[in-house]
Specification:
The protein is α+β, with helices and mostly antiparallel strands. It has one domain: Outer membrane efflux proteins (OEP) (Up-down Bundle), CATH 1.20.1600.10. The chain contains 10 helices and 4 strands.
Length: 479
């Protein structure tokens, strides 16, 4: 390859200036390449998911996957976030920046043309050494001109720069879609967390009310002498423990509301608190498609590959920098002593210049840039490979999480149902005088934590479902 490049260069030098333009035009069309062509990295995809349900039909999430939860509030919040989230808006601006950089890089492939115009008025010194001194009239020089310059991309340096810029612009688009998926899943998770904390506060308030009702009854019985002061103190301890759960839950709820407001680009003060409960939502079932299809459904994988393409093009640019730069400059215009004669052919002037620039000694800068570009490519290649295996790991983790949290939520529901029966029976028997207070306290202490755990289990199941949607790339698909 280097031998053929050397031959091309010698042909240009020997041909001389008269043949330079025609040779350069041919070079522009054909060109030479001094860098490696990009090759898609090989990846090993598993044949099947380890924890997937084989009985479910394989499918991929829809573009509006969040509607499967059956919450119009969530749909509205996500629509607001897609329009007003600041991180997403910044990602869109980064796409505009990358597109502009691509246009700048592409400008080197076409000639640059400029126009100049000058008017010079001058007076020379007097004539005549003896006798009468004469002053010649003033002269005015009018000189409009058009200049053009072009660097022939013989070694493909400018084309490689444009290729790198286009790949970076493509990566920025994928990055925007990564940000959008992250924002949407964050809105869904935060919304579910708000409902969870509201449910837990509702459980805590109901538990406090029931415990205080029992405490009032015990205080009345103590006054009648049927229970001891120890029974009253024990119930007061239960009430105090339940009340202590309210402040941290209230704090977490407010912080989640603030986080949701930021996600949708609103001030926390104007956000209306969502209503409803986790029990009102449904958890959609997801059956992922084939693992081999995953890489085309995740924008972060596409972004990593686009960055790798840009780095490969940068290696071409660095290699091309070792070879001479060939440029052509042309200028044409009018030089006239009078404005009226500017259209006449006699004042026409032009110039054509061909130039070659070759770096002889750069203190190792060119070699250092090449080594940097190659190392950068190798680094991004490792990042791509890690992104691929991480994608498979994300899906496996999310699949096992959805399965186990669904099982946990079902068992917590069974536990709460049995605890409620036990508490209702014990309170009825206490009023009938067939059981003592300790039995009621035991059932009470079992019911309230079970209801709190159920709220947390429901949230964990919904959170795992959102994580699975995200691991599968949401509804995104590479075009």
């Amino acid at each position: 390859m280097l031998r053929s490049l050397s031959y091309c260069w010698k042909t240009l030098v020997i041909s001389g200036a008269p043949r330079f333009c025609s040779a350069a035009c041919l070079i522009t069309v054909i060109g030479c390449s001094v860098g490696p062509a990009f090759q898609h990295p090989e990846t090993n995809s598993p044949t099947a998911w380890r924890t997937a349900d084989d009985h479910q039909k394989a499918t991929w999430p829809a573009a509006d996957w969040w509607q499967g939860f059956g919450s119009s509030q969530l749909d509205e919040l996500i629509a607001q976030a897609e329009g007003t989230n600041y991180d997403l808006a910044a990602a869109v601006d980064r796409v505009r920046e990358a597109d502009a950089q691509a246009r700048i890089a592409g400008a080197a492939l076409v000639p640059s043309v400029g126009a100049t115009a000058g008017v010079t008025r001058q007076r020379t010194g007097p004539s005549g050494l003896t006798g009468r001194v004469r002053f010649p009239p003033d002269t005015t020089l009018v000189n409009p001109a058009i200049t053009a310059s072009y660097e022939f991309d013989f070694w493909g340096k400018n084309r490689a720069s444009l290729e790198a810029a286009k790949a970076s612009a493509l990566a920025s688009r994928y990055d925007e879609q990564v940000v959008e998926l992250t924002v949407v899943t964050a809105v869904a998770t935060t919304y579910f967390q708000i409902l969870e904390l509201r449910d837990r506060l509702t459980v805590a308030q109901a538990s406090i009310a029931a415990a205080q009702k029992l405490l009032s009854a015990l205080q009345a019985e103590q006054a009648a002498g049927t229970v001891t002061i120890l029974d009253v103190v024990q119930q007061k301890t239960v009430v105090a423990a339940l009340q202590a759960q309210v402040p941290p839950l209230t704090q977490q709820l407010q912080q989640s509301l603030d986080a949701l407001a930021i996600l949708i680009g609103r001030s926390p003060e104007v956000l209306q608190q969502p209503s409803g409960a986790l029990s009102d939502l449904s958890a959609p079932l997801i059956a992922p498609g084939l693992p081999s299809e995953l890489l085309a459904r995740r924008p972060d994988i596409a972004e990593a590959e686009a960055q790798l393409m840009a780095a490969n093009a940068d290696v071409k640019v660095a290699r091309a920098a070792f070879f001479p730069s060939i440029s052509l400059t042309a200028a044409g215009g009018i030089a006239s002593l009078a404005l009226a004669g500017i259209t006449g052919p006699a004042g026409a002037v032009y110039a054509v210049t061909a130039g070659v620039t070759q770096s002889i000694f750069s203190g190792g800068a060119l070699q250092g840039q090449l080594e940097y570009s190659q190392a950068r490519y190798d680094e991004l290649l490792q990042n791509y490979r890690k992104a691929v295996i991480s994608a498979f790991g994300d899906v496996e983790d999310a699949l096992i999480a959805t399965q186990q949290t669904a099982l946990l939520a079902q068992r917590e529901e069974d536990t709460v149902a049995e605890a409620r029966k036990a508490y209702a029976i014990s309170t009825a028997q206490l009023e009938a005088g067939t059981v003592d207070l300790q039995t009621v306290l035991n059932t009470e202490n079992a019911l309230f934590p079970a209801e709190d755990s159920l709220a947390q289990a429901r949230f964990a199941r919904l959170q795992a479902t959102v994580s699975l949607f995200k691991a599968l790339g949401g509804g995104w698909e590479q075009k």
